[in-house]
Amino acid sequence: MKKGFQITAVVLALVLLGGILAFSIVTMLSVRAMAQEQAEALERLEELEQQDTDDTDYEEHASSEDDVVIAGEYTIRSTTAISDAYLTGDSSQLSSRDKETLDMASEILDEIITDGMTPYEKELAVYEWMVTHLAYDSGALVIIPETDEDSDNPYGVLKYHNAVCVGYATTFRLFMQMLEIPCKVVHNSELFHTWDLVELDGHWYHVDVYSDVGETGHAYFNLPDGVRLQQQTWDTDFFPAADALDFNYCWQNRRSVDSVYDVPAALRQAMDDGLDAFALSFPLEITESDAALARQMLYALDNALMNNYAEDLPHAIREQNWMTDDDGAYCVLISFDRSSGDPYEPDTPDPEALEKADAALQDAFGDLFDVTMEEGYEPPYYYGDYDYAVDDGGVITWGEARG
After folding, report:
1. pLDDT tens string 43-57
2. Dihedral of CA 28/33/36/41: which sign?
3. pTM of this prediction?
4. How far apart are CA 165 and CA 286, in angstroms?
């Protein structure tokens, strides 16, 4: 019996007990109402017990990779049919939708993968393509998915560049399968988030593309369990352990310091070198108070970066994740935010273009009313707060603003 059910059962039992104790001191008019309330409580108790008996979703999901429902509506589905078609060159058994997915994915790999790349370099190329290209398909040229079903699979991700975490996780896995790099889609214990596990040189690493899309710093790229467990929980008995740092992006750019007082200089040097992620490794004899002081330095610098603009420096420290390395020494994985501008803000036309557009409007409508181009005007293509529908021809029909 689950803990949640046990608590509910105890509460309901107390309700019944309270009703029995009160029975002797209430009027006859209250007896009928109490009896009805007790009967309803018993009925609810039976329903919960039956629900507890029938509810096997968690047990099934805890030991499964595919066919798991996330957030109650998004399903993790296998993509091996598409990757097998890519590897064999035979797509005759694919549906038209899967063939289109295969074509889109193949075109991207042809663009970013070159001969002689290592598996890690291939993985990094796919990751960086996803977190940059998928984040910038926005603004006036955004394409709205035809249905919600398009947001949890590679077809929706590659065609519309607009998806939930399930879509990004399954798309990354599809790319890895096409490149013959072992990869699994992981879901958290609460069934509201998904990411990937990828195997490189016999070791597994956590990769969360969704959390890095539109950001900088490789904060969620090739993490070990020690860091990921600070962020999420999952079935560690079913999914393989991620127990290495070798291919973590921060670790590959690591710097060592002799003492905690060398942290500021190491941070400044990493920034001046243009790094967006690196690791600081401390001596084995670092104390808890030293570690606390280093954390305080990082928080102070983060606050200063966010409140002061410095050219060519990051805007913030995006993540700092503490752990111990293979030798038992303290280390911190640091990623910076170097975002420049808002990717969702469209480019403003130059003054000459605005003047020509203004003249065109006046020529067409000047006899009816005055139409003036305003540089700061917000066009209605932003659809996040409005209901809309898309017909077969791709035409958007706008509805009421959402409250």
Report:
1. 544 554 454 434 444
2. negative
3. 0.69
4. 38
